[in-house]
Amino acid sequence: MGRPRIVVMGVSGSGKSTVGRRAAEALGAVFVDGDDLHPAANVAKMASGVPLTDEDRAPWLDAVGRVLADAGPEGMVVACSALKRAYRDRIRALAPATLFAELDGTVELLAERVTGRPGHFMPPSLLASQLATLEPVEADERGMRLDVAESPDLLAATIADRVRAEFR
Questions:
Q1: How far apart are the C-alpha atoms of 139 and 19, rounded to whole Å?
Q2: How far is CA 134 from the centre of its chain?
Q3: End-to-end C-alpha distance for the chain, whole angstroms
Q4: Are 82 and 100 in contact (CB under 8 A)?
Q5: Digit-coded pLDDT (tens) for 42-54
Q6: What's 56's DSSP letter?
Q7: pLDDT tens by residue, 53-79
Q8: Chain centroid to CA 93: how far?
């Protein structure tokens, strides 16, 4: 099937990690949670309720791109917010064939999910800033938009089906 490179993207609470893990399993690919690639200073900043700047995000986005570029023959799925086109372009500069699967949902559903996640470093107060920052995947990008009201299994299967169809 080649080396699929997929970023499951969206705001906090959209289900990036859950869907990403399941898509990776369906494809026999490696899963990486982009949160694990953040420098400690970024995690501390977000945990204190302060949104990251583009300057803060730059080394993190580069790390995401490098991990994808170095994917083995089984491919890789990374959960990463990738909220702006410029962020996706930065990742694509290192991993050009990356498919972006955007998880989209209503503000109400996302807020419910974020407040129901105890112990996560990303506080619910940052959801509004993420939604304001979000630039949906555009028609000229290799990507797709999915409704998070659907089950994580269905979303993962949809991503896997798209990848399989492209690698036939």
A1: 22
A2: 12
A3: 7
A4: yes
A5: 989 888 888 789 9
A6: H
A7: 999 999 999 999 999 999 999 999 999
A8: 16
